[in-house]
C-alpha cells in the first residue's frame, strides 16, 4: 500500500511566474505592478492586462486583505484535500488593491472578514499562499 499522502498539483514556474514562486520559498507574497498605469497585475503576465504596458515590476505585498467572496466545499476537489473538508475557496481583496483566489481552512470565513496570508509548504521548497482570519 502506498503510504505517501496525495499532494496538491501545482503549476511549474514559467519564465514569467518564476519570480512569484521564488518569493514563496521565503514566504513572501509578491505581485507585478505596472509602471505605466500603476495597477497591480494578478496572475503573473508578460504585459499589463489593464493598459497593455510592458513595464512590469515585482513588489512585495502585506498579505493582508478582506474576504470578498466565499464558497464552502464539503466534498474535496482533490484527494489531497480529503482530510481538510469542509474548506473555503475565497476571493481576497488585498489591501494593496488586487484580488486573489485562495483557500481558508479550519472554518469558513464570512464576507468582509479581515485575513492575512499564511503558507502551505510544497515538497520542493515552494509554498502556496493560503489565508487565515486575523
Ligand atoms: Zn498598466
Write structural notes for this entry.
The chain is mainly beta. It has two domains: 14-60, no CATH class; 62-134, OB fold (Dihydrolipoamide Acetyltransferase, E2P), CATH 2.40.50. Helix content is 5%, strand content 38%. It has one helix and eight strands. It has one helix at residues 18-24; strands at residues 30-34, 40-41, 56-60, 64-73, 87-94, 99-104, 114-121, 127-133. The strands form two sheets. Strands 6-5-4-7-8 form a five-stranded antiparallel beta sheet, with no helix packed on it. It has a three-stranded antiparallel beta sheet with strand order 2-1-3, with helices on one face. Strand 1 and strand 2 form a beta hairpin. The longest helix has 7 residues, at 18-24. It is globular.
Q: What's the story with the biggest beta sheet?
A: 5 strands, antiparallel
Indicate the CATH topology of the largest domain.
Answer: OB fold (Dihydrolipoamide Acetyltransferase, E2P)
The percent of residues in helical segments reads under 10%
Residue-averaged pLDDT: 93
Number of domains: 2
Ligands, ions, cofactors: zinc ion
What count of helical segments does DSSP give? Answer: 1
Radius of gyration: 16 Å
Spatial gap, N to C terminus: 40 Å
Anisotropy-based shape: globular
CATH class of the largest domain: Mainly Beta
Amino acid at each position: 500500500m502506498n503510504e505517501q499522502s496525495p499532494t496538491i498539483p501545482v503549476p511549474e514556474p514559467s519564465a514569467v511566474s518564476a519570480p512569484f514562486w521564488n518569493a514563496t520559498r521565503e514566504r513572501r507574497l509578491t505581485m507585478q505592478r505596472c509602471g505605466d498605469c500603476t495597477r497591480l497585475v494578478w496572475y503573473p503576465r508578460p504585459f499589463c492586462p489593464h493598459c497593455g504596458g510592458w513595464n512590469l515590476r515585482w513588489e512585495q505585498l502585506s498579505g493582508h486583505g478582506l474576504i470578498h467572496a466565499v464558497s464552502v466545499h464539503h466534498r474535496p476537489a482533490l484527494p489531497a484535500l480529503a482530510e481538510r473538508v469542509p474548506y473555503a475557496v475565497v476571493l481576497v481583496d488585498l489591501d494593496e488593491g488586487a484580488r486573489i483566489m485562495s483557500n481558508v481552512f479550519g472554518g469558513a470565513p464570512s464576507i468582509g472578514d479581515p485575513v492575512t496570508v499564511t503558507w502551505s509548504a510544497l515538497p520542493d521548497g515552494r509554498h502556496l499562499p493560503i489565508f487565515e482570519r486575523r
